[in-house]
Amino acid sequence: MSSILIVPIGKISNSHLHLLKAPLEATFGLTVTLNAERALDPVFAFEPSRNQYYSTQLIKHLLRLYPSFPGKILGVTAYDLYIPVLTYVFGEAQLNGAVAVVSSYRLDNTYYGLPLDAALLEERLIKETVHELGHTFGLLHCHDYECVMHSSTAVEDIDVKGERICGVCSTLLAKNKQG
Amino acid sequence: MTETQQPAPAILVVDDEFVVRDSLSKWFREDGYRVGTAEDGNQALKLMSSGPWDIILLDIKMPGISGLDLQKRLVEIDKDAVIIMITAFASVESAVQALKEGAFDYVTKPVDPDHLSHLVQNALRQKRLNDENLRLRHHISTLTVSDELVGDSPPVKKVTELAKTVAMTDTTVMIRGESGTGKELIARTIHVHSTRRFFPIIAVNCGAVPESLLESELFGHERGAFTGAQHRRKGKFEMADGGTIFLDEVGTIGSKMQVQLLRVLESKQFTRVGGNETIRSDFRVICATNRDLEQAVKEGIFREDLYYRLNVFTIFVPPLRERRSDIPVLANYFVKKYAAAMNKPVTEIAPGTLDLLVRYPWPGNVRELENVIERAMVLAKPPSIVQTDLPFQLADSKSHPSKDTLSALECHHIETILHRTGWNIARSADILDIDRATLYNKIAKYGLKKP
């Protein structure tokens, strides 16, 4: 029986990890396990010149840590992520693969000089987590701006879209889960 | 969704760094694009065959062929591809060079994902508009192929050929010919075969506009320039910007306007009547006249300098009587045209009636022929036009020349000899001491008919 394993990367609040369980189970219909005790130390992925963590290396490392995990692995971090050609990423996933990572760093209003909005941060984190895991199930970016699979490269885009996947993507998800 | 029905846009990433190719291709695949990657110029050139690529992301600094050289070569292969340069901070100068060479934009590594996402979307929108524009232009080209001179006689072929040849240049063309020979049609033929065809052709009948109004007609006027000028109005020269202005009956223009016209033709600049603003317009001039301009120049009615300015490339349109072999073709062309317009099943002209048309001298040329056919189509009982459908003077006309002329004598003599030989052409030609072809021509010319 496949499931989803949540792995914390570096220091991250437990409440953030716990809040993901219910929406992920609801969206993907799989059991979600939390590996809160065994947080991954991401020092190997740190790039001092950018003060950021290389998300592709985190994905590779998670794959090595759980080579035969029968399901999807989700790394969640509060650190800033990047891939070399881009200035930042909210997360990264293996399309049709096993691993996705998500960062809450740029989902936090305080990053943009605004007062903390804990509820908004949680909402954004849920959306981005569902979005990246969606890619591991083979979902591409959706043209429906309310669908959680709609592409978002800025927090404003995340706030516009909903937490759910649209009908078209749901059908595709069901098909991909079977196949 | 309509988007899903279109083929996925294709992006080619050319960069020597694996991580860049890898991460960008993953990133674009998640967006639903078809992605190709190449690590150097040679591979990119090879991949062009598996295109077309809508967008090419091109690293400026690569070993081997540089990004800038590659850009030129890629554009040679596919001039429609949108190229976005990727550069490090150090090479912003070469990015500027790339923009001068026609790149859509450039990004510096690392690039803000929000910026890249919007840039690619804008590039795609631009590409779609370009593609659509090309399709529409092609469509217009096929739609605007205007009526050309109908007929396949050598003079018509020559005129059409000349018109198409001169069309590709920006040379001023003067079309000479009698009234009704189709001078405007030639002007339109030149326009639709020129690179200006996507812009308007503005026709001005200089003879039909009173001299006092011609100035404002051609150059436009400002509000209040004269009594009744309540609004600013664009002139024909301004409206023809990018296209062609066709000045019909240019020989009728008065001396004051001739001076102004000369100035505009030379400077392509003018001011509206009552205005101070200098207006520039890029137009090509085609003019037409049925007057003897050379004589008018001699008499001082037409300015010599304007004559030379206009008389750069002349096309003579032959009168209909000099290309009689086209009359049946033209007549049938008009029958078809009016049958469709009137929704009347008249399909032909009775043979005897056609002979009559061929023999008539057509002083009003093709325009007269068209009017005669239109009139006949109104009267005709399907399926054919007969002699009684033609206007009275035409049905009555004998094309025999008037009695006292030398032609009349020749016509009468040929008719007599033909009668004597029982219309034996060879013998008649012998007697007349002319060759048979000449005899045939004369029979046609005088409209002689075997009894």
Topology:
The complex is a heterodimer of chains A (179) and B (451).
Chain A: E1 3-9, H1 14-28, E2 31-34, E3 46-47, E4 52-54, H2 55-65, E5 71-77, E6 81-82, E7 91-93, E8 99-103, H3 118-136, H4 155-160, H5 167-178
Parallel strand pairs in A: 1-2, 1-5, 4-6, 5-8
Antiparallel strand pairs in A: 3-4, 7-8
Helix pairs in contact in A: 1-3
Chain B: H1 2-5, E1 10-14, H2 18-30, E2 34-38, H3 41-47, E3 55-59, H4 67-77, E4 82-87, H5 92-100, E5 105-108, H6 113-143, H7 154-167, E6 173-177, H8 183-192, E7 201-205, H9 211-219, E8 220-221, E9 233-234, H10 236-239, E10 244-248, H11 255-267, E11 269-271, E12 278-280, E13 284-289, H12 293-298, H13 304-310, E14 313-317, H14 327-342, E15 348-349, H15 351-359, H16 365-379, E16 384-385, H17 392-396, H18 406-420, H19 425-432, H20 436-446
Parallel strand pairs in B: 1-2, 1-3, 3-4, 4-5, 6-13, 6-14, 7-10, 10-13, 15-16
Antiparallel strand pairs in B: 8-9, 11-12
Structure characterization notes:
The complex is a heterodimer of chains A (about 180) and B (about 450). With about 180 residues, chain A is an alpha/beta fold. Chain A has one domain: Collagenase (Catalytic Domain). Chain A is built from 5 helices and 8 strands; from the N terminus they run E-H-E-E-E-H-E-E-E-E-H-H-H. A 5-stranded mixed sheet of chain A has the order 2-1-5-8-7, with helices on both faces. In chain A, strands 3-4-6 form a 3-stranded mixed sheet. In chain A, helix 1 packs across helix 3. Chain A is globular, with a radius of gyration of 15 Å. Chain B has about 450 residues and is an alpha/beta fold. Chain B has 4 domains: about 140 residues, Rossmann fold, CATH 3.40.50; about 160 residues, 3-Layer(aba) Sandwich (Rossmann fold); about 80 residues, Helicase, Ruva Protein, domain 3; about 40 residues, Arc Repressor Mutant, subunit A (Orthogonal Bundle), CATH 1.10.10. Helices cover about 50% and strands about 15% of the residues of chain B. The longest helix of chain B is centred in the first third of the chain and has 31 residues. The N terminus of chain B is likely disordered. Classes of the chains: A alpha/beta (about 180), B alpha/beta (about 450). The interface between A and B is medium-sized, with 21 and 24 residues.
